[in-house]
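Posting for a labmate who doesn't have an account.
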Amino acid sequence: MTRIALFQSNTGIDPKANAEALVGAIGEAARGGAEMLFTPEMSGLLDRDSARASANLRPEEGDEVLAACREAARNNAIWLHLGSLAVRVDDGKVANRGFVIDDTGAIRARYDKIHLFDVDLPTGESWRESAVYQGGKGAVLVDGTPLGKVGLTICYDLRFPALFARLAEGGADLIAVPAAFTVPTGRAHWHVLLRARAIEAGLFVVAAAQVGQHEDGRHTFGHSLVVDPWGEVVLEMAEQVGVGFADIDLGRIAEVRSRIPALNHRRPVPEAVIR
């Protein structure tokens, strides 16, 4: 068994306060015996006021939240999946970038969110991630973690099963899905999509989420989940801020895949023919 922790956060508009919350969660996770902590999407800043947010954005090497988390991971000797931060990139846009940090504080992997969310919702909310963010270019697996191979995704990626299939075919044991789901979409789709991705790929899915009413006015769904390869929920955190723990048995993957060896049965699918 490998113990993991999830931090379900209510990230605000002040990176310094968010960094302090993350450092506290890292320490709590380590004291609770976790070998790796998972945090949500946009763990360092959640602010839909573009002008105010822009003043707080930095390139990766100058990001105070990332630096604080690397130091805390090293001081507490724990691995960390920092679900994502908004970091400035060379072309003037921003990357929604996740980081895997080892127990020495070294960055072992980076992943930029591939699928960007552009939509006008019935509630009147409008999102145009592509106006600000630069999409990622490829799938990322990181090996050598306490949980074997970990595949990286971010939030809206959850709706694209081909990415999860590619990570599973690359040997992933676990796929992380840090998120900031809205309440309506969370109620409708969060549980069913996460369980489906775990079942399809025959692996663990760990989804640390934002929760509650945020300083910028948005309201996120919470319900951080750990789902096993059979689709069973190992941990659900409902709607509270805090750190939750789950014990992961990686042997469960081989057990489930021996019963339903779907990965071995996948075949190339030709383009659909219209008749």
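Reply:
Got it, the structure tokens are right above this. The radius of gyration is 18 Å.
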